[in-house]
Amino acid sequence: MNIKYWVAFSSIETLDSNFVQRLYNYFGDIEAAFNASSKSLEQIEGLSAKKAKEFLSIRDKINLDKCYEEVERRNIKVLTFDDKRYPYMLSQISNPPMVLYYKGDLFECNLERTVAFVGSRRASLNGRDSVKRIIEDFKNTDICIVSGLAEGIDAVSHRSAIENGLKTIGVIASGFDFSYPASNRDLYEKLEHGCGAVVTEYYPTFEPIKFRFPQRNRIVTGLSYGTVVGEAAIKSGALISANLTLEQGRELMCIPGSINNKNTEGIYKLLKNGATMITTGEDILNSLNWEIKRDCEVTKNISAQYLPICDIINIEPKSFDELQAETGMDTDELLTALTMMEVEGLIKQTEGDRYKRA
Questions:
Q1: Band of the pLDDT at 308, cuts 50, 70, 90?
Q2: What kind of fold does domain 1-73 have according to CATH?
């Protein structure tokens, strides 16, 4: 089983994807790469002699079967670089992960409609609300939201995707033996059980060490056709993701925010340097030149008399009087419609007795 050799390579903490990729490209076969002699490794142009020596010293101590059984025992699925199902967009970056470990339904996600959302772990309320609002615009579509399962913008992005019936992929910076941060454990569960997938390049026992987070970011952006930056300070992981997006030749988009917020200083730097400003989901679609089909199931269930109300409050919440003025419906007719729409979960009331889409 070739998969055992891929897993064995990934279990060596001192190796990175570039090292394994060089060997695989040179030998054209992962088993041959794993069993390479010292002399043959010396022939590979650009291969680190130090890493080659480390690999050889560790390789003979690895029990291939046991290494793979540890993955199976944890019910973790494995996707290798030579698998035809390997995500195309990720395969195109300069240093793709040679192995992807995942839980959930990765191939239920539309990997041809992926958008990454990244941003500050300490996001402002405005930043969180902006991300929610934009993702709501994708409700009932097959767009897949990709993020890093961190606190702040990442968590809001995943949760908003789930709330709007979208699939979402969380890329983590450790093996599956760790859930970091612990506050997002419920998100891990949701993604693993029907809402998308949790993905990592790291063997199950690898800890969430600091240097692994920037490495994780290249997978978040690499899986995606474009990246949306929600909030970012001048020195932040989100700016690393922004630079990776540009290096990978993908579309970089930014949500504007308050100029008094430290977490938007990075946003305006990116905008000044040519990133696309977005304020709606439609802006993202235009930026990526996407036309999408919405799941009409909800629309089918909306009575024709409700549609004018939905169109009006889709922009902003409206009071009863405003709705009556704009729809021309009489009092009893409008009251009945609003009551039925609330019962069916289509709308809800906000402060000040205003109505908005649920």
A1: confident
A2: DNA polymerase; domain 1 (1.10.150)
